[in-house]
Specification:
The protein is α/β, with parallel strands linked by helices. The protein has 2 domains: 239 residues, Nucleotidyltransferase, domain 5; 210 residues, Nucleotidyltransferase, domain 5 (2-Layer Sandwich), CATH 3.30.420. It is 37% helix and 21% strand. Strands 1, 2, 3, 5, 13, 14 and 15 form a 7-stranded mixed beta sheet that branches. Strands 18-19-17-16-22-23-24 form a 7-stranded mixed beta sheet, with helices on both faces. The relative contact order is 0.13.
Length: 487
């Protein structure tokens, strides 16, 4: 059999075709625009997602390795936290408000101070962050009351795709965990949070596990793609949980670090546990259990900004060739270009270079950017370690993972064995694996991950550099409190 995995990203949708044994046969990618109507706002038209996904499916099934008679199922991993609102006719009411939208500062403050962090944590296991869905609902209720009154269905981006492809109004635990509407520990909607947001349960999708079948492709879509029979579409997962499946991060204590537009530290956990001050998230995992996650808003995007927008070059390899990664760089970089989520939960903090001198070089500033992102990831990793979780290695994925210099810096700053994968396909591969599990190719998600995911190389930390970077990290930790309210 063959399985299709879909990654509904922020700038494009990626689709891949996977054999039952995990071999990726082909892939396609289709882009769509992001709209920034006001400073700090970020929106998309959900119909663009559907349109480009259907075009991508057609192209994928037309590739030479595709066998339409063998397509068993489809799994989708998607950008989290976005607010998609439909009316009684299933029409999109307003552009989707995305995960990186920062308009909900007041709503987030209301939830964390008026409702209270202790209560939010009791209701959901998490506290409010500006990117989460619940603050977006409160914003819409306050600023667009007529539109809000017309809302009949509230869903997440990838769940909109599932709904339009199958007619099934469902979500999965991992994605729903990031809405601040789900009682994560008990894997069900929180009645208290629904009451706070002024919505009722009928407006929300049915909650399922990621590997459960939500429905089957509609007849008209089957016919348009030249398919026959019943093609299962599973509930899928939030992009980070889907990527974790695609990297084999499924066993208790296993870790995956992703350096994409944003950066994440993802740690699988068999049990539900909350970090100090809720500084990192506790969400459901796509394997049916839980995970801890720290998310920084600007990771590889910091490097892209510095290199392409400031230095005006795309020669990434050339710009990094003079970097030694010895921990002796006197320059510091705070990677808060869009505010920050984990662990600071501060949409107003901004990025900065510190320690500049007349003899500071271009290479030192580049190195500071790489180190700054790694230090910010370490903030979340150390919170997980404080809970007693032993973490000795991590998978590494995302665009930033392709930099050999950054791989070495991460290994030494994080004090982890960094594992690179033979096939780094991210959430799309995770979606395909979930579809294979749902259709009976594998008994469990863990079995599938062990069979599919292969490590090609491991970067080991160097003890002497770990010690040097630990001292620099302690200095880095003092910078955010010192500059809060100034930047």
């Amino acid at each position: 059999m063959q399985y299709i995995g879909i990654d509904l990203g922020t700038s494009s949708v990626k689709l891949l075709l996977m054999q039952a044994d995990g071999v990726v046969l082909s892939s396609v990618s289709k882009e769509y625009p992001v709209c920034f109507p006001k400073p700090g706002w970020s929106e998309q038209n959900p119909q663009d997602w559907l349109r480009q996904t259907l075009v991508g499916l057609g192209e994928l099934l037309a590739t030479e390795h595709a066998n339409k008679s063998l397509i068993g199922g489809i799994g989708i991993g998607g950008q989290m936290h976005g607010l998609v609102a439909l009316d009684q006719n299933d029409q999109v009411i307003r552009p989707a408000i995305l995960w990186n939208d920062g308009r909900t500062e007041q709503e987030t403050e209301f939830l964390n101070t008026q409702i209270g962090i202790k209560q939010l944590s009791a209701y959901t296991g998490n506290i409010a962050f500006a990117g989460f869905t619940a603050p977006k609902i409160l914003w819409m209720k306050k600023h667009e009351p007529e539109r809000f009154e017309a809302v009949r269905k509230i869903m997440l981006p990838k769940d909109y795709l599932v709904y339009m492809l199958t007619g099934a109004f469902t979500t999965d635990v991992s994605d729903a965990s990031g809405m601040l509407l789900l009682d994560v520990k008990n894997r069900r909607w929180s009645d208290k949070m629904l009451e706070i947001c002024g919505i009722h349960k009928e407006m929300l999708p049915e909650v399922r596990e990621s590997y459960d079948i939500s429905g089957y492709l509609k007849t008209e879509i089957l016919e348009s793609l030249g398919l026959r029979g019943r093609i299962a579409v599973v509930a899928g997962a939030g992009d980070n949980a889907a990527a974790a499946i695609g990297t084999g991060t499924v066993e208790n204590g296993s870790c995956n670090i992703s350096i994409g537009t944003s950066g994440t530290v993802f740690i699988a956990s068999d049990t539900f546990r909350i970090g100090e001050n809720n500084a990192i998230h506790v969400f459901g995992h796509a394997n049916g259990r839980y995970h801890l996650m720290g998310c920084m808003l600007s990771a590889a995007s910091c490097l892209k900004w510095w290199q392409e927008d400031v230095l005006n070059t795309k020669d990434y390899q050339g710009e990094q060739k003079e970097i030694k990664g010895l921990g002796d760089n006197p320059v510091y970089f705070l990677p808060y270009l869009m505010g920050e989520r984990s662990p600071h939960n501060d949409p107003n903090i901004r990025g900065a270079f510190l320690g500049l001198r007349m003899d500071t070089t271009r290479a030192q500033m580049m190195e500071a950017v790489l180190e700054g992102v790694a230090f910010a990831l370490k903030d979340s990793l150390e919170i997980a370690r404080s809970l007693g979780i032993v973490i000795s290695k991590t998978k590494l994925c995302g665009g930033g993972a392709k930099s050999p210099v950054w791989q070495e810096i991460l290994a030494n700053i994080l004090d982890l064995n960094v594992e690179l994968l033979e096939a780094e396909e991210g959430p799309a591969l995770g979606g395909a694996i979930l579809a294979a599990v749902a259709c009976g190719e594998y008994a469990t998600v863990e079995d599938a991950a062990r069979a599919v995911v292969k490590v090609k190389k491991t970067i080991f930390p160097r003890k002497e550099l770990v010690d040097v970077y630990q001292k620099k990290y302690q200095a880095f930790r003092r910078l955010y409190p010192a500059l809060k309210g100034i930047l």
